[in-house]
């Protein structure tokens, strides 16, 4: 398979380079993200973006926005940085870039006349520390390197403006300085491993423009503080390392730490190795909690996304302990049968039901007995909560099916809201919710039977047949041979991908003939090279491009936009139906993403794609359930190839 490829001749072309973003994380919630030329195009971009529980448990904070490098020879200065301001880029350091490599760490090479300098950016795992190594590869005369930090100390969802309360001082520490613009924030420590001069020169720079925020209809102008700059001599062949951290480090240990850490980095040479690396970035440790980030750079933990993505992100690489740690964290926060979804909102009808599916995958690694002993009580509790009804929004009707309805929020994964109202609504009986409900009951009965829980068996053993009969009666559209998306007063016959869940689970209420026709409809109307559309293009409500301001994007988010995560269930259903005959087609679907690791989010997979060609990537640059789905597809292919 092809690897990450960049056209060196195009690196100085901003139309090319600004569409390619990089991400590095510390596996503890902190990250670095910017474009491959280090020009920030989003408010979420920054070199040191970190959690700060003392300020807020749910958001990240941008401490270090950027670091400008300047080469000085014969009293002439050449600034290697690039920033966007209204109607201009200044400075224009991208014109000096001659090479960019993503692996083992993001590395940029610049040429300024006879000077060639290489810059390697390394995030330290399990620490909030970014290290950058500058190596002077070529130089014909005495050379100086100047480094100027730009800082903001603000919530990653907000923007910084010049003000009188910011602390603009620099405080001396071992071979460096520290900054803290506002009370309660962590301090930013910047230290060098080499002799240098630090010049105190606090100054605000105005109107940094973030073009991606402008495209998305958000405020896009920011003021940044530069407290001063570092300046040092650098000789040909010499390397200088700068450490940026929320903790002070020993300057004498900087070089040793850099070299030991970079030696541990894997080479991301093809789609598979990139996916495995990207997957490891989503699992983060917050104190005693282990959580799964839904997507970088702006999502936090989402309950629904956690369970959908978890098997692909962890189990495909044998990370069973990580998987159970994430589940245990979620289980510790369950309330009335529901898991927290976004932040602390308990508004997802499907998240608890996806837990059963996740446990089915985990059983392959731990065994049925361990699953039942460890999670049986939780499983039974969820089913009992649904049966009893939850907050007047979730109930089980006499036909055995789950009814979910709320006027104030969308309870399924199609949860976009505009003007306080769900875009797709779907109040009533939803197809995937009831498919998951049936699977959950059957799986719990399977385990209860194996381990002789007679009370549960007696109470629940008659329900699957009742549910199956009602489901087929309510959802099956005999004339067109596919499943309704949801049923309220009548069937909603929109052709949507949610029905694919009913074809891919271990316990299914549709037979092979139904699966075949459902997959035929999905293939005809919804399948793209990048996933499944959320609505058929023949539908008048279809939106083929997910762009513009937030209300415009939200109206398209589930009305035609393509989602990668659904491919896992489409491929799984095809393997159920066709077995080994489907290997070649599944392999082609997987390989369709070879090109994606060199665009948009480098080395990873985007949240969404347009429904219309050329299927432009949108949303977060790295999405957990997108990456997890492709790793699961890879795993299915490998199992059927053996």
Question: Which CATH architecture of the largest domain is right?
Answer: Alpha/alpha barrel
Overall, the morphology is elongated
Give start-end ranges of low-pLDDT stretches: none
Number of helices: 17
Taken together, the total number of domains comes to 2
Query: How many beta-strand segments?
Result: 37
- Gap between N and C termini: 20 Å
Query: What does the radius of gyration come to?
Result: 26 Å
Classify the secondary structure makeup into a structural class: alpha+beta
Helix content: 25-40%
Strand proportion, as a percent range, falls in 25-35%
Assembly type of the chains comes to single chain
Structural write-up:
The chain has 17 helices and 37 strands. The protein is of the alpha+beta class and 642 residues long. It folds into 2 domains: 8-262, Beta-galactosidase, Chain A, domain 5; 271-641, Glycosyltransferase, CATH 1.50.10.10. Strands 1, 2, 3, 4, 5, 12, 16, 17 and 34 form a 9-stranded mixed β-sheet that branches. Strands 8-9-10-11-18-15-14-13 form an 8-stranded antiparallel β-sheet, with helices on one face. Strands 31-32-33-35-36 form a 5-stranded antiparallel β-sheet. It is elongated. The two termini are 20 Å apart. The mean pLDDT is 95.
């Amino acid at each position: 398979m092809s690897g990450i490829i960049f056209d060196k001749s195009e690196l100085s072309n901003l139309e090319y380079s600004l569409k390619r973003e990089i991400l590095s994380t510390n596996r503890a919630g902190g990250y670095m993200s910017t474009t491959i030329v280090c020009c920030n195009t989003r408010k979420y971009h920054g070199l040191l973006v970190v959690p700060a529980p003392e300020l807020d448990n749910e958001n990240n904070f941008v401490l270090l926005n950027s670091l400008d490098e300047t080469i000085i020879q014969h009293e002439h200065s050449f600034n290697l940085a690039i920033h966007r301001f209204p109607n201009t880029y200044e400075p224009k350091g991208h014109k000096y870039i001659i090479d960019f490599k993503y692996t083992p760490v993001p590395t940029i090479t610049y040429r300024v006349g006879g000077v060639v300098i290489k810059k390697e950016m390394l995030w330290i795992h399990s620490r909030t520390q970014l290290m950058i190594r500058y190596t002077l590869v070529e130089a014909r005369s005495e050379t100086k390197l100047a480094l100027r930090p730009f800082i903001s100390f603000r919530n990653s969802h907000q923007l910084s403006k010049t003000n009188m309360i910011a602390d603009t001082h620099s405080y001396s520490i071992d071979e460096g300085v520290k900054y803290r613009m506002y009370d309660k924030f962590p301090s930013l420590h910047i230290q060098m491993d080499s002799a240098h001069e630090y010049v105190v020169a606090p100054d605000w720079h105005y109107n940094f423009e973030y073009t991606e925020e402008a495209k998305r209809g958000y405020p896009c102008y920011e003021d940044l503080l530069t407290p001063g700059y570092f300046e040092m001599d650098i000789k040909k062949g010499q390397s200088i390392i700068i450490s940026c951290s929320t903790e002070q480090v020993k300057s004498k240990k900087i070089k040793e730490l850099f070299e030991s850490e970079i030696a541990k980095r894997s080479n991301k040479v093809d789609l598979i190795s990139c996916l495995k690396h990207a997957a490891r970035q989503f699992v983060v440790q917050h104190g005693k909690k282990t959580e799964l980030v839904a997507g970088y750079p702006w999502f936090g933990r989402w309950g629904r996304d956690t369970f959908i993505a978890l098997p692909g992100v962890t189990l495909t690489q044998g990370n069973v302990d990580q998987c159970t740690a994430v589940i245990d964290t979620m289980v510790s926060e369950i309330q009335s049968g529901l898991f927290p979804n976004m932040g602390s909102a308990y508004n997802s009808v499907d998240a608890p039901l996806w837990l059963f599916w996740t446990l089915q995958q985990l059983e392959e690694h731990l065994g049925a007995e361990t699953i039942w002993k460890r999670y049986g009580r939780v499983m039974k509790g969820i089913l009992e909560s649904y049966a009893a009804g939850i907050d007047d929004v979730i109930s089980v009707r006499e036909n055995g099916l789950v009814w979910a309805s709320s006027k104030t929020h969308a309870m399924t994964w199609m949860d976009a809201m505009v003007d306080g109202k769900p875009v797709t609504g779907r109040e009533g009986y939803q197809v995937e919710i009831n498919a998951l409900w049936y699977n959950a009951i059957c799986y719990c009965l399977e385990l209860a039977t194996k381990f002789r829980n007679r009370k549960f068996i007696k109470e629940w053993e008659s329900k699957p047949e009742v549910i199956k009969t009602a489901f087929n009666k309510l959802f099956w559209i005999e004339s067109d041979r596919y499943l309704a998306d949801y049923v309220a007063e009548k069937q909603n016959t929109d052709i949507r991908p949610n029905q694919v869940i009913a074809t891919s689970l271990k316990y299914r209420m549709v037979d092979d003939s139904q699966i075949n026709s459902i997959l035929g409809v999905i293939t005809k109307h919804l399948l793209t090279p990048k996933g499944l559309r959320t609505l058929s293009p023949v539908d008048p409500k279809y939106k083929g491009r997910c762009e513009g301001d937030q209300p415009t994007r939200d109206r398209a988010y589930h009305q035609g936009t393509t989602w990668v995560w659904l491919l896992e269930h489409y491929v799984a259903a095809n393997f159920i139906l066709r077995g080994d005959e489907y290997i070649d087609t599944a392999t082609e679907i997987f390989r369709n993403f070879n090109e994606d690791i060199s665009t948009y989010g480098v080395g990873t997979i985007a949240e969404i794609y347009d429904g219309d060609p050329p299927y432009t990537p949108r949303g977060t640059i790295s999405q957990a359930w997108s990456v997890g789905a492709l790793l699961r597809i890879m795993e299915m292919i490998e199992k059927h190839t053996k």
